[in-house]
Structure formats: structure tokens, C-alpha cells
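Team,

Forwarding the record for the chain on the shared tracking sheet. I've put the sequence and predicted structure together so nobody has to dig through attachments.
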Amino acid sequence: MNVEAELVELGRLAEQFQTVLGPAMLRAADDFACHHEAQMIDLITQRLYGLSDFMRALRPSVPEAWAIDPDAAARVVTLGDMACRLRGVPQQISSHPAGEFEAF
């Protein structure tokens, strides 16, 4: 479920990215390379949603008794917040006020 949720969120972010860049991409539509890049953003969005749908469809076929400890696998994920979400660790509320600069 955590991987599925992560894929859904990434798909949402990619879709938002596509929406924000859409007008700029239309202005550059005469440039084939730019048009190709815009199509790749759409493909990434579709594939992320497709993977989340795949994970959602697989979930009912996994026996309830099966348990997987995600800690070892999550340790190889270099993004700390994502690793925590994949392990099922509750989200920490950001202590930064809205609009404050936050580096990755």
C-alpha cells in the first residue's frame, strides 16, 4: 500500500508539473525536441499511474498472513522522507512556515 501511495503521489506531482509547463510547451510546439520532451512528461505521468493501478490490483491477491519488513529495502532509498513513507512511518509535520525556503 505504501508503494502504491507513493506512485499515486508521484503521478499527481508529474501531472501538476505537466499542467504548469503546458502553456510554455505549447509556445515551443514548433520545436520538435521540445514537443518530444513534453510527450515524455505525459508518458512518465501515465506510467506512474499505471504502476499504482498495478500495485492496487495486486494487493487483493497477497494473503493477509504475509508480512514484509520494508526496513532493509527502505535503507537503500536515499530520500529520507520517501524511505520513511515506504516503511510506514507517520509523516512529520513541517516546522517551517508556509512559503519559507526549504532545500532538498
